[in-house]
């Protein structure tokens, strides 16, 4: 497995695990307890707090523990507005924020807030100028991510911060993808609230922090009430081991940040260099400065789901993991002018501290192979059919076995030429799938068959299954190849039923051509 | 040997739980929401743990929502139910944990009527008064704890469902202290929401759950991401979830043994304490958690006592760990009508599954020494 999904989550650093273990064993005291067990745990919590502060140029009292960046973002935005008692205040944010910010803003809109969602410029970032132009007299808060998690572009937060301070507008920055990657010095940059997370930086899941500036003081209404922990801003027993873990992770990041940034930038550029042997690909965010660890590329003519399926043992992401279950087209990619289809054919490679040059070389080769192969399958392809190479990484996404087998090792891809070939097509590029079936009859039955397909693995499997099933079949029996039969044979789930319908359409089109041979020309 | 008698504040992680967690701390590191193989493996273990919690508490897996702990679970329950509702009233037991009490009180600023429910001198809900309180105006939510964290007093919630549902309200039960110490069954109790915490049952800190009946609609506390059916955004804390699941399974399997073992220790301590003059045991006439004993030694300051005991290697608490250090006596004891002076002398002993009789002896010796040295 080549893991290139570090922007989604990172492996826990060995040193971090070692730092956590004592607090999962003897150091079990509650940090809020007044006895020795508690005091010892509290000391570990405070040591970690100082580490977080040190990495971002803050003071320890400015660090509030949370369960992760999602909570940090919620606390910052809701807490700031609630403290001001300004339910109908104006917020400026952008459309390329993490869901935690967008969903929070949408929630606040239902409570009366007005929100401006800025679109990124043509280079895929948000500029200071855009934000300043969106301000209104009642703007209470600007919330902007430092580094975009999908394409790695760096927004102009450093330019913007002093301008917002001058205007007395609270500035929240989601720095989840920036911290430990870029140098952050809050002693110099007047950001008021800043969210960070541990598990994107080789720390444990389930812990994060919010920087809350003391001078001038950013005030928040708590979003989790209770025992009054964390200066009353966030109640709940502190998970000592998690906090010791984030502290160590941030300490390590401070030690290796400069070196990591140089190395990752070189690897990232090498990956892009290698991929460029493929025609018709686009580097997303090419014209903006980008964080060292993220490379996002769109591949024309290679359907996204099939591309990911083929790269099973190369773990990459298509956009943010948080939204991949819902498969919403990426806003940032659309802003760059990629249509929904091309946005869907985009991969985010995110590199990490353990990524090697060999892994980059191998991953590039695998992607090149996969894209070339999928393009060669396509009905629009002029290439001759290449040999099947799909599925080197195995069935990583859990497709039904009959689908996976036919998708990963099709044997009927190609073209038939010459007299008496019947060619039928079904589906539409708009539906992101297209199937071409060709048959040649001999002695009253199908003697030769070939297909080409563009679409998800199920669509390709349908083409292969139909081609195999048509061999030796008399035209009178073609009608038996119905959508329900295709679904049954391939165990196609409900949400892919349209692939079976496309198959049925193609077979019916063949039958129509047979009965009206004049159409075949 | 240090003696740890503060198991209601937090428990020592069970080595069996740690063993179950380790592969998910150091091993497959998928984000459980990612679709690739690592992510899918993480998703599977999260669902296994959900089933373990459900089995432990008598709920459906679909009713289990992960949170960062008991405090967040209580916040999610109270705010989640009231967020989009037309404000009416929220009632809570006067001895509730601050996570319930402070959350309930915060709803006042959103237009809700918020009222405590009175208890008697032994910490038990005054049911007749409560029934009358329910009737006098519309109520949306009632929050009652199954067992108190300081006194260990158990509320008999057998009729609570009928009363609360009769008033057209939802019943939320904070079972953070009760779960794993006495039988707690969500569906049998008929409540609508229930909070659980992992680190009180020998699981890891930083994870808990809110059980929400499928009939109750709640709004999220943390927006962002589709995790937990959209009710709780944020990347799943996979290792902690796995640990909580295993801790719950062990708590279910070992409940009877743990109860018998801690109860024996408490009875020994209680009968010995009764021989000391000037001792008051709180909630003495009530049914209490088998592991919990809160008392005051008249004329002594609880905080000072616990510091002196700590110096002798014995960890106890004056009350809730959250409220510790502010010098104020426990709202629980004051709510029971205990005098300010007496409440300030409170010491809570909470036993765990690994405590021994020898440790009780050690505690008694130390307590007598501290008391005499004054």
Descriptors for this entry?
heterodimer; A: about 525 residues; alpha/beta; Sufe protein. Chain: A; seven-stranded mixed beta sheet; three-stranded antiparallel beta sheet; 16 helices; about 15% strand; B: about 375 residues; Aspartate Aminotransferase, domain 1; Aspartate Aminotransferase, domain 2; 13 helices
Any idea what the CATH architecture of the largest domain in chain B is? Answer: 3-Layer(aba) Sandwich
Alpha-carbon distance between the two ends of chain A: 49 Å
Provide the spatial order of strands within the biggest beta sheet of chain B: 2-8-7-6-5-3-4
Main sheet properties of chain B:
7 strands, mixed
Secondary-structure-based class of chain A equals alpha/beta
Count of helical segments of chain B?
13
- CATH third-level topology of the domain at 401-515 in chain A: Sufe protein. Chain: A
| Rg of chain B | 21 Å
Structural category of chain B is alpha/beta
- Which fold name corresponds to the CATH topology of the largest domain in chain B? Aspartate Aminotransferase, domain 2
Rounded to the nearest angstrom, the radius of gyration of chain A is 27 Å
Q: CATH class of the largest domain in chain B, please?
A: Alpha Beta
- Tertiary shape of chain B: globular
Please write the CATH class name of the domain at 401-515 in chain A: Alpha Beta
Principal-axes shape call of chain A:
elongated
Largest interface: A-B, 76 and 75 residues
Number of strands of chain A: 15
Topology, number of strands of chain B: 12
Percent of sequence in beta strands of chain B: 5-15%
Helical proportion of chain A, percent range: 25-40%
């Amino acid at each position: 497995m080549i893991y290139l999904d570090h922007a989604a989550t990172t492996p826990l650093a060995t040193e971090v695990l070692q730092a956590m273990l004592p607090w999962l064993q003897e150091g079990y005291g509650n940090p809020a307890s007044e006895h020795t067990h508690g005091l010892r745990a509290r000391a570990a919590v405070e040591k970690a707090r100082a580490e977080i502060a040190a990495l971002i140029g803050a003071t320890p009292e400015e660090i509030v523990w949370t369960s992760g960046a999602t909570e940090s973002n919620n606390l910052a935005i809701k807490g700031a507005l609630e403290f001001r008692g300004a339910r109908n205040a104006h917020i400026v944010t952008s459309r390329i924020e993490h869901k935690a910010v967008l969903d929070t803003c949408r929630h606040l809109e239902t409570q009366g807030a007005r929100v401006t969602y800025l679109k990124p410029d043509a280079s895929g970032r948000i500029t200071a100028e855009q934000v300043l132009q969106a301000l209104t007299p009642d703007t209470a808060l600007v919330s902007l991510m430092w580094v975009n998690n999908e394409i790695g572009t760096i927004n102009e937060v450093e330019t913007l911060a002093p301008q917002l301070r001058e205007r007395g507008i609270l500035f929240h920055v989601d720095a989840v993808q920036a911290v430990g990657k870029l140098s952050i010095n809050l002693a110099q940059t007047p950001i008021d609230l800043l969210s960070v997370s541990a598990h994107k930086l080789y720390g444990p899941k389930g812990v994060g922090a919010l920087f809350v500036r003391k001078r001038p003081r950013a005030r928040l209404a708590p979003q989790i009430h209770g025992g009054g922990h964390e200066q009353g801003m966030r109640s709940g027993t502190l998970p000592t081991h998690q906090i010791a873990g984030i502290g160590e992770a941030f300490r390590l990041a401070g030690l290796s940040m400069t070196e990591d940034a140089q190395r990752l930038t070189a690897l990232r550029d090498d990956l892009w260099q290698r991929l460029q042997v493929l025609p018709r690909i686009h580097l997303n965010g090419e014209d903006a400065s980008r964080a060292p660890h993220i490379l996002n590329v769109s591949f024309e003519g290679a359907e996204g789901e099939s591309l990911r399926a083929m790269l099973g043992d190369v773990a990459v992401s298509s956009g943010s993991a948080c939204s991949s279950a819902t498969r919403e087209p990426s806003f940032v990619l659309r802003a760059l002018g990629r249509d929904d289809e091309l946005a869907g054919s985009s991969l985010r490679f995110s590199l990490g501290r353990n990524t090697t040059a060999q892994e980059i070389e191998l991953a590039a080769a695998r992607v090149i192979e996969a894209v070339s192969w999928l393009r060669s399958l396509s009905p629009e392809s002029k290439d001759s059919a290449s040999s099947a190479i799909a599925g080197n990484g195995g069935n990583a996404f859990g497709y039904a076995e009959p689908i996976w087998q036919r998708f990963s090792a099709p044997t009927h891809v190609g073209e038939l030429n010459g007299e008496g070939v019947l060619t039928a097509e079904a589906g539409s590029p708009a539906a992101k799938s297209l199937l071409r079936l060709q048959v040649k009859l001999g002695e009253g039955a199908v003697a030769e068959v070939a297909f080409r397909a563009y679409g998800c693995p199920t669509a390709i499997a349908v083409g292969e299954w139909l081609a195999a099933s048509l061999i030796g079949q008399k035209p009178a029996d073609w009608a038996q190849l119905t959508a329900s039969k295709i679904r049954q044979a391939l165990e196609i789930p409900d949400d892919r039923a349209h692939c079976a319908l496309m198959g049925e359409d193609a077979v019916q089109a063949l039958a129509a051509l047979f009965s009206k041979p004049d159409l075949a020309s | 040997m240090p003696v740890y008698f503060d198991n209601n504040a937090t428990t020592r992680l069970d080595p069996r739980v740690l063993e179950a967690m380790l592969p998910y701390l150091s091993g497959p590191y998928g984000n459980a929401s990612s679709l690739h193989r690592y992510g899918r493996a993480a998703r599977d273990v999260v669902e296994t743990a959900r089933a373990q919690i459900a089995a432990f508490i008598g709920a459906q897996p679909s009713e289990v929502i992960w949170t960062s702990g008991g405090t967040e679970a209580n916040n999610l329950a109270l705010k989640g139910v009231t967020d989009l509702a037309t404000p009416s009233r929220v009632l809570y037991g006067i001895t509730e944990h601050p996570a319930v009490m402070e959350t309930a009180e915060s709803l006042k600023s959103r237009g809700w009527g918020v009222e405590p429910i009175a208890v008697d001198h032994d910490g038990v809900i005054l049911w007749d008064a409560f029934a009358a309180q329910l009737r006098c105006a519309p109520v949306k939510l009632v929050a009652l704890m199954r067992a108190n964290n300081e006194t260990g007093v158990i509320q008999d919630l057998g009729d609570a469902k009928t009363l609360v549902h009769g008033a057209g309200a939802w019943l939320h039960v904070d079972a953070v202290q009760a779960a794993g110490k006495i039988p707690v069954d969500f569906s049998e109790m008929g409540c609508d929401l229930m909070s659980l915490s992992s680190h009180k049952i020998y699981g890891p800190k930083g994870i808990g759950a809110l059980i929400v009946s499928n009939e109750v609609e709640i709004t999220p506390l943390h927006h962002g991401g589709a995790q937990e059916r959209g009710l709780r955004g944020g990347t799943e804390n996979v290792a902690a979830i796995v640990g909580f699941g295993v801790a719950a399974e062990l708590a279910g399997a070992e409940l009877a043994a743990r109860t018998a073992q801690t109860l024996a220790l408490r009875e020994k301590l209680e009968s010995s304490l009764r021989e000391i003059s000037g001792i008051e045991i709180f909630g003495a006439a009530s049914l209490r958690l088998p592991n919990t004993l809160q008392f005051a030694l008249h004329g002594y300051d609880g905080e000072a006592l616990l510091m002196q005991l700590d110096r002798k290697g014995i960890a106890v608490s004056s009350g809730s760990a959250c409220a510790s250090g502010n010098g104020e006596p426990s709202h629980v004891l004051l709510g029971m009508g205990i005098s300010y002076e007496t409440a300030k002398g409170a010491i809570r002993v909470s036993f765990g599954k690994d405590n021994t009789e020898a440790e009780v002896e050690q505690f008694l010796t130390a307590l007598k020494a501290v008391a005499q040295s004054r």
